[in-house]
Write a structure and sequence with these properties.
Distance between the termini: 13 Å
Radius of gyration: 20 Å
Shape: globular
Number of helices: 5
Helix content: 40-55%
Number of strands: 3
Strand order of the largest sheet: 1-2-3
Number of domains: 1
Structural class: alpha+beta
Strand content: 25-35%
Length: 146
């Protein structure tokens, strides 16, 4: 994140969460493009596996907002499991939520070019969000994107 934008990440409470959400969406879109077999799946059933945290200070305990993100190299497809035994055992109880299982679709072809593309797409979308929030004008965002 350019130093110029770090000020807004520190001052605007929604900015870090928004930037992280944008980044994770870009990562998920890239993983979906690199996972064979997900084209047949329902897009609503596909999920990213990631752990992320917002770190708000540097090694000198100075304000320095940045992210730590660990992403699984693929996507999970949620699937319902068909079981009628619960309805037969207790017919008086209401409908129970269907148990779920997941299928993992590993990504293939993740190379340096794919990572560069994720970085470029995330940069473009985060800059667009900063322009929309009024933190940056469009001309400066274009300069930062270059």
């Amino acid at each position: 994140m350019p130093k110029r934008l770090r000020y807004y990440l520190q001052r605007d409470k929604g900015a870090p969460n928004g930037a992280l959400r944008i980044y994770l969406r870009v990562v998920q879109q890239s993983l979906l493009a690199h996972c064979p077999g997900v084209a047949r799946a329902d897009p609503a059933s596909l999920h990213l596996g990631a752990v992320a945290c917002i770190h708000r200070f540097g090694s000198s305990l100075n304000t320095h907002v940045h992210f730590y993100v660990c992403v699984v190299d693929g996507v999970f497809e949620a699937q319902s499991v068909n079981t009628d035994t619960s309805a037969q055992a207790n017919p008086q109880s209401g409908p129970e939520p269907a148990p779920q299982s997941a299928i993992f679709h590993a990504a293939t072809g993740l190379d340096e070019a794919a990572f560069r593309q994720v970085q470029a797409n995330a940069r473009k979308r985060i800059l667009r969000a900063f322009v929309a929030r009024g933190h940056l004008d469009a001309h400066d965002a274009k300069d930062l994107a270059a």
